[in-house]
Predict the 3D structure of the following.
Amino acid sequence: MRSFEEIERDARPTPAFSNGSSWEYWEAAWCASCLRDAPYRNGIANTGCPLIAVAICSQKTPVEWLEQEQPQDYHCIEFRAPGGGGGEPRPKPEPPQEGLFPRPERATRMLTELGSHLREEVSA
């Protein structure tokens, strides 16, 4: 993630949120579960997410927050969900080869009349 100074330099000059309620709603949906800000929220680190700092301290909107249809509803491209995709990316597995070759024709199954002993059980 970029530094506070880099984010502030490139941020849009408009405030991200018009009031505290808008911020609280958005923060609960995004920041409260993001792994990037978790060390600060849990008291492990002294600094939190620089995107939040720019939005609150500088009254600017970080470019990492993509605008959506609703005003003040952003999509954060730096969001990292808990338990989401840990480790190095793995290549897609090779597909099974059975789809590459035509399947043999299935035998046709025909219904036959029930045997006489089964007919008696069904009618009883």
Notes: The beta strands are 65-67, 74-76. The longest helix spans residues 20-29.
